[in-house]
Amino acid sequence: QAVLVESGGGSVQPGGSLRLSCVCSGFTFRLYTMSWYRQAPGKEREEVATIDSSATITPYAESVKGRFTISRDNTKDTLYLQMDNLKPEDTAVYFCVAGYTYWGQGTQVTVSS
Question: In sequence order, what are the residues at sequence separation of 6 or more whose Cβ sits closer than 8 angstroms to the Cβ of residue 28?
Answer without folding.
Answer: none
